[in-house]
Design goal:
alpha/beta; five-stranded parallel β-sheet; 10% strand
Amino acid sequence: RAVDRILIAITKKQTILIFGDYDVDGTSSAAFLTLFFRSLDVDIHYYIPSREKEGYGLSNQGVDYAKYIGAHILITCDCGIVDYNEVTYASKIGLDVIVTDHHKPAKKLPKAYAIVNPNRQDCCYPFKGLCGAGVAFKLGLAICKKGGYDPAIAWNHSDVVTLGIAADLVPIKDENRVIVHQGIKQIEKKTNPGITALLRTGGLWGKEITVGKLVFWITPKINAAGRLGNASRAVKLLTTQNPVFAM
């Protein structure tokens, strides 16, 4: 259901807003989907809430911003599964909300257009260990599969997804292991200026990249953006094509 709605949006040139949580998993999810949709020539925007002013989860300020920019779809990353009032508010003002999350929901689900979460009680998805970035990544692959796009469009940004997997400390097995294996290869190719800048400033330049090194030397810097102010800087870092701006 989520994929079908997004494919309609791509065809009709509709605007999509990505709403990501302010931690590494949320910002890397938002960065992945931003890069992914840019590759499909979608009018894509993102919004990261203020930790202090808005708190955790989907906020009415974020919903209002989506309406302000003329978005037709709001996609949550790493949040939304318990944001009943905010999802209802977004729906009332004409937004189709697609929740992508991995947190375990309550019995009650928000009244979103679609909910993508492997930990839904009614979900038979075989691997329950995906983080928010992993769920966003699988959504990207599903769009490629049903829309007839090259899956490389998603895999090219597996480096960004790997940051979310590492930071969220989910088990590095099954799908996570495959994504991380490819993601580290992508990091070593240095195709993402933001991650490359983090390697340079984090003392990992020219060294072998491992999940452990990412957890201790890279992802805390991304987390710090939200703790010290505006977390959207993390998404700017991970989505810029300008290496000077990234540094």
